[in-house]
Write a structure and sequence with these properties.
Blueprint lengths: L10 H13 L8 H5 L11 H8 L4 H4 L3 H27 L4 E2 L1 H12 L6 H13 L10 H4 L1 H7 L15 H4 L2 H8 L3 H20 L7 H25 L19 H6 L6 H6 L15 H12 L2 E2 L6 H24 L2 H25 L15 H7 L19
Antiparallel strand pairs: 1-2
The structure holds zinc ion (2 copies).
The site of one zinc ion has 7 residues, from helix 5 and helix 7.
């Protein structure tokens, strides 16, 4: 079947395209725009390297474990989680600090070891997420597509593979970044080989550690990288479902202390959706943000500079919102206290009887209360309780999006 008689390429054409894209992720013979406009569908051929990444974890059955390999996997998880959050996210996606062109290339190489495709692909999708958070256009909203799709499905969808360079023009003007983005498997392969070589060297020069090339490949590459993917994916899935909402943003982003630990500060996702242009996601001193601390230390080396603070107006807005949220929570708990409930028990039967009698007498219909919002937060509860709803949020803060 040719393209002239079908808008959808044949299976073999799509498979050949997918295999070529393993090497050259910009290869799109039918056009990247057309591919992006397809409906969501898992591309099983294209996604095979991602499947192999997961299957490689089972290599532990044959290589076993040593304390050194296990701790190396943990250390490499956090070193590379820092690259996801501090480089892919806070530099390439939001440009919350500055660096030189050589420094930028070094950061892109570091971020390449995370095996989360190229920095431009990452930034394009992330900026798109901020523009369309939790609306039907959002590629990974758990409210629109469900939890599994938001966590892992969207990254396997054929339409989400091509990078839209028109949305990352500020980055696409650097040919070295575009090249790394296009051949996004090169750094991961080099990283995997280096893990094997490192393990082989240790086996030869430090046999007491009990590790070897294959074991370090499994623990330092496959297991650590798979865990890194799922840790990162929690930000797309869990932080739009679980946690507290401080700011009444137009999406359902939430703050989570646990995910701030797992993802080195990215758990303060509601903060971040409120204001994206600052280097820290933990806005207050008690909100732990290891990525910010790491970036601060990097700035002392001169590799990066110009870290952006949280504006005072945003900090004050957050404190006002906290106050209003706690007042609403206190009001809600007052209504549900046992002593109030017991007094209500005496009043409610009589009130209900009067209401039924009144309705029957008049023949009127009881107006139906609108269904409760799926994602009701305390500010909405405050409104229902007759409290002043928190002041409407100022317009979304300008981000550094250039698209
Ligand atoms: Zn962001
Ligand atoms: Zn989000």
């Amino acid at each position: 079947m040719s393209d002239s008689v079908s808008s959808r390429p044949s299976f073999f054409r799509r498979a050949a395209t997918a295999v070529t894209q393993w090497i050259d992720s910009d290869y799109c013979p039918e056009g990247a725009e057309k591919m992006r406009n397809e409906p969501d569908r898992v591309d099983w051929v294209r996604v095979m390297p991602f499947v192999v990444l997961h299957l490689g974890c089972f290599g532990v059955i044959w290589v076993g474990v040593s304390a050194f390999a296990a701790w190396a996997a943990v250390a490499l998880y956090f070193i590379r989680m820092f690259a996801v959050t501090g480089i892919h996210h806070r530099y390439f996606s939001h440009k919350t600090y500055s660096t030189s062109r050589a420094g930028q290339f070094f950061l892109a190489l570091w971020a390449g070891t995370t095996v989360q495709r190229g920095s431009l692909w990452w930034a394009y999708h992330h900026r798109h997420h901020h523009q369309h958070s939790d609306d039907p256009e959002d590629a990974h909203s758990p409210h629109v597509h469900g939890f599994i799709w938001s966590h892992i499905g969207w990254i396997t969808s054929r339409r989400n593979f091509p990078t839209d360079y028109s949305k990352v023009k500020d980055l696409a003007k650097f040919p070295e970044l575009v090249w790394l983005n296009r051949f996004d498997l090169l750094v991961p392969i080099a990283y995997a080989f280096s893990m094997f070589g490192f393990g082989a060297l240790l086996e030869h020069y430090a046999p007491g550690l009990g590790t070897n090339g294959w074991q370090m490949l499994v623990w330092g590459f496959f297991i650590s990288t798979t865990a890194l993917f799922h840790g990162t994916a929690c930000i797309n899935s869990f932080t739009h479902l679980w946690g507290k909402r401080r700011f009444n943003t137009t999406d359902d982003s939430r703050n989570s202390f646990i995910l701030a630990l797992v993802c080195l500060g990215e758990g303060w996702h509601n903060n971040h959706h409120r204001y994206q242009s600052c280097t820290r996601n933990g806005f207050y001193w008690w909100e732990i943000d290891p990525t910010y601390y790491g970036l601060k230390m990097l700035s002392w080396t001169g590799l990066i500079w110009g870290l952006k603070d949280v504006p005072q107006s945003i900090l004050e807005e957050g404190m006002r919102a906290e106050h209003q949220n706690s007042v609403a929570a206190a009001q809600a708990s007052t209504l549900t206290r046992p002593e109030n409930a017991s007094s209500l028990r005496h009043v409610l039967p009589a009130a209900a009887a009067i209401a039924v009698a009144t309705v029957n007498a008049s023949g009127t219909q009881i107006p139906q209360k609108p269904a409760a919002g799926v994602h009701k937060d305390v500010s909405e509860l405050a409104h229902e309780l007759g409290q002043a709803k928190p002041a409407a949020q100022p317009p979304a803060a300008p981000t550094d999006r250039t698209a």
